[in-house]
Amino acid sequence: MMFAHESAVSGCAGCSLSAGLARRGLLGGLILAGAALGLAPGRARADKPAPYKALLLSCVDPRTQAPVAAWMNEGVPDSHPDSLLGLYSQFTIAGAAVGVVAPAFPKAWGETFWDNFSASIELHRIENLIAVDHSNCGALGIAYGRDILDDPKREFAQHLKDATELKRQLALRHPKVNFQAWYVARDKCGNFTEWRNLVAGPPIG
Ligand SMILES: [Zn+2]
Q1: Cβ-count burial of 68 within 10 angstroms (0-12 exposed, 13-18 middle, 19+ buried)?
Q2: Quick check: pTM over 0.90?
Q3: pLDDT tens digits, residue range 133-184?
Q4: What is the C-alpha to C-alpha distance for residues 116 and 149, in angstroms, rounded to an integer?
Q5: Which residues, by Cβ under 5 Å, contact ligand 1, an ion?
Q6: How many A from CA of 63 to the centre of ligand 1?
Q7: What spacing in Å lies between the alpha carbon of 181 and ligand 1's midpoint?
């Protein structure tokens, strides 16, 4: 399915943004490129519905890439009743929500995420942030001590705490953007198939 303004939103704008960043070699170029494209915050937008639905914040763990993509691409009643295939942007960082908010990681990690999130809002007009954390996450061990990974209750509680903190930060930065956070754990076969809600949000339609 093609959207009427797909090329203007995801094609030309995305390429121009990348080119702008490459030319300037500065993160600040992101803002300048957005302004040059007429994408500055506050600019009146067309009355068409947003073409894209969400940004997915996920972990770099190789084991979780395929399961998380499959989950996004299928209908999930409490999250996204219809497939989000081709309808979401993605930011992947060690720890997902933990990587953005845990004090143990450099502050730049969180700032880089929020800068990219703002760019995705401007470029793709997304209205939802989905965070997916996972069990046995090495980044959680780095941030809070490796032994936390041996205590499933403590492990889950920390992911819940960090996802809640991420929601708090989102509300300060982008109060109109909806939020939901999920946790995927391994089943008895070691596959990431057991999904639990961390922070409930409105289903994305
Ligand atoms: Zn991880």
Answers
A1: buried
A2: no
A3: 999 999 999 999 999 999 999 999 999 999 999 999 999 999 999 999 999 9
A4: 29
A5: 59, 61, 137, 139
A6: 9
A7: 14
